[in-house]
Structures are given as C-alpha cells and as structure tokens.
Amino acid sequence: MSTPTPSTEPSIASRMGIMRLWRRLVGTADATSANASAEPLDKRQWQKIDALLQEATSRADSDTRVRARARRLLDAYQKANAQDRLAFMLRLAQGFHIDEAALEVAIAHWQQAARSGNAADKLHAQTRLAQTLESPRMHILRQFNLLPAGIEALVRMRAELLSLREHQQALQPLESDLLRLLTLWFDAGFLELQRIGWSSPASWDDLRNRLDSDRRCYAFFHGRMPEEPLIFVEVALVQSLASSVQALLDEAQPTNDPTQATTAIFYSISNAQPGLRGVSMGEFLIKRVVEQLTHEFPKLQTFATLSPVPGFGQWLRTQLADAAYVQQLPAIAQRALADHATAAPTDTSTDAAAPATTADTAYERLQTLLATHEASAHPREEEVALKQWLMGECAHYLLMQKRKQEPLDAVARFHFGNGASLQQINWMGDSSAKGLRQSLGLMVNYLYRLDAIDEQYHAYARQGLLAHSSEVKKLLAANPIRREG
Known about the structure:
The chain has helices at 13-16, 18-25, 43-56, 63-79, 82-94, 100-116, 119-133, 136-143, 150-163, 168-185, 205-210, 245-248, 282-296, 312-320, 323-326, 331-337, 354-372, 380-400, 410-416, 433-439, 453-463, 470-478; strands at 191-195, 215-222, 231-238, 263-271, 302-305, 402-403, 406-407, 421-426, 443-447. The protein is of the alpha+beta class. The strands form three sheets. The chain has a five-stranded mixed sheet with strand order 1-2-3-4-5, with helices on one face. A two-stranded antiparallel ribbon has the order 6-7. Strand 2 (215-222) and strand 3 form a beta hairpin.
C-alpha cells in the first residue's frame, strides 16, 4: 500500500525500538538469554536461597528487608542457568503449601462465628480464613511486586514454566498461583490503550502496510511494563465486510481515506506475552478500541472481525474417518478422496492408528483439490455442492459442536463470549498453505453490534445461545450432511 502520511499522534514506535516492534508485529519474539554459560549453583548458594525463601514466608518484616530479600531472590533466579531456574521453580512449587492444620482451625473458627451471629466475630473469622487460604508461596510471589521489574520478571517466569511441558504436573501449584496473581495485576483497569503509529520512513513493506493510514494497530500496556506490549489488535478501515485476508493485506491496493470508512475489520489479535496466557485481556481490548474508533471516525457503523477457524480442520479429519460420512460427500469431493477415506476397521487386530492416518490422507487430498481448484474446471453444480458441504460443515462445527455449552473452537469461544454474533463464513478467506491446512481456506466474520453485545453476551453466558445471522442459518439448512438426532 502507499506510504502513509506522518501520524499526528504520539508514536511509541521509536520508544520501543523499531526492531522490537517489527518482531512483535510479524509474530516473532525477542530471544531471551538462557544464561547457558552460567555456572551451576553450589550447595552453599542453594542453602542461602532456601534460607531467603523461608524468611520470605514471614508476614512480620519491614518493607526495606522485604525488598532487599526479594531483590536477592530475583537476582539468583535471573542469573541462573536453565537447570537451576527449573530447580528454583520446583522449590517454590513443591514447598510452601497451605497449612492444612491451620486451615481446619480457621474453618472451625468461621463456623463458630457464623453460628453466633455476631457481625464483628464473623468479619474477624472471615479475614483469618482468607489469610489462611493464601499459601506461603503466594505470599513470597507477592513480594516481587515491590521491585520495579518484579511483575515483568514473574511474567517471564511463567512463560518459561509453561514451556517446560515435561514438568507441568510438578510445577502446577506454582503455575496456579502465578496465574491468579497476574490475573489480579493485569486487570483491565490497570491497562493503558495506545495506538502504535508509524512516524519514520522504512523499507519493510509489511510493517508499513500494517500501520498505513487506513490501518490501525492498538496495544495494551501496563505501567510496570511500559515498553512491553501485552496484546495487539490490528484493524482495517474499509467500506464493507472483508472476506479475504489476502485481499485485505494486498499491498497493491490503494490506501482508503479512513474518514470515509463505514466498517472496521479486526483481522489480527495477538498475545505478545506468553507468560500472560490465560489472563483475559482481548475482550477488553476490542471494546476499548471500538470506543476509540467510534469517537475518531463517526461514519463507522459496522465492527467485525476476519477470523480463522483453527479447530475446523482437525474436527473434519475425525468426520472423514467415518465411511458413512464420506458416502454423503459431494461427487467432486468423493472423486478427490477416491478410496482413501474409510471407516475405522472392524478387525480389532488392525493397527489402531490406521483410521487417523487414512483421515489425514483424505484431508490432504481435499487441501490439494482446493489449492489447485479452478471454478471453470468443473460443472457449476459440483462447485456449488462443494461449497455447500464445506461451508455448511463449518457452520455446524462452530454452532453445534460444543463442550458443555461452549463451542469447541477457541476463537469462536472468545468472540461469542464477548457478545459477538457469527455473521458470515467466507469461501477461500485464507488461500495460503496455512489457511488450507488449518480450515481448508475458510474464514469467518464475527459481528460486534453495539446495540446487541450485552444481550448476546448474557444469552451465551446463561443459556449457551450462539447468535448468528440468517445467512449462516441458511448454510446449516443447505448442508448435505444428515446426522441422526
């Protein structure tokens, strides 16, 4: 796209460092030092660390001593090699649990106070119970908040912890406490929304394209991590719903006048901090950005996403393992699959992995069909049938395939949980190799109707109702696949 005019808004690009911003936007993180060359901690050093951890469980100490101790513990962790950092986390995870005997006493005290009916006694007992329910581990972790870089250090610690999959069970107590603390510390009320602008020339077309005058990129920041974006959302200001991510990001397209835009398309939401996985921020980010855009561009009437369907491909693979299902497919799909999509074997001596392999082969053949498919190469009836099947199955997957009352698809859960509705399913919305592999090229639009968000959110939260358009309802009805029940 054409070079944007310089933004009049304060740009944070220079403050962050343009290469760091570039890495964030294109989906790669800065490499962090693993201290591979650090010498292993010796017995005396571990004894000192253990002593500091025990001292940190005390609830009666001066702020000066608490800060100094937290600083020493954090230095020991950050300067250690990977093996010693793991040992440090295991010490926290496997020790410093809630005192069960003290908890039983606190519960009994609460029950006695509740029976007495005395309000002061109940309040005192409730406070005592709450304090007892906080593990010494949680008390230790809270002390890092007193250090200027303490919160960021805990975010990094949790990111490393989550990467150690083979140790997840042993580290689970620490992970749970970290998630609980970070959820409190990164509450939406503590986050600052900033627009990321482009105020200097560059030769990186993709970065420029993402920050062009008809594009907006917003991020949440935290006061204790002022140069570290937490989560990004990228927005295109256009005239109608976008149905193709390739067309939306086509650099050859002319830049639109954002003041004339009627539609805002949220086409990328990216968590920039692995250590904050599971901390809810995205829904607040979208709503804050909608408020900002509405104020800046009064002509905007439609707010929607162009979203992937990351779970559709894997779900469809399970369907293709069923011979009865394959028999219902359109002729064009059956020809492509030939005899490679079969049901699970009835011979119990057959390798149990065979059905999955067969389904994977069938799915790969569908990818090939769509990657090389040209509409003119087949009768129109077959083209229509292929679309009806895949788009109908996508609608079925998003709206009917649930775990309890929540959609199986993670992106769908996110947007329905924010009060959005499923507006449109787009054929070849992402024609890249990744798009074909993930969802056979399908993408969807979730619509955020400002006058319906609250009603749709409550309908979803209370009853599991998934709002969707009449167009999507027609796709469900036209789906050639028939299921029992």
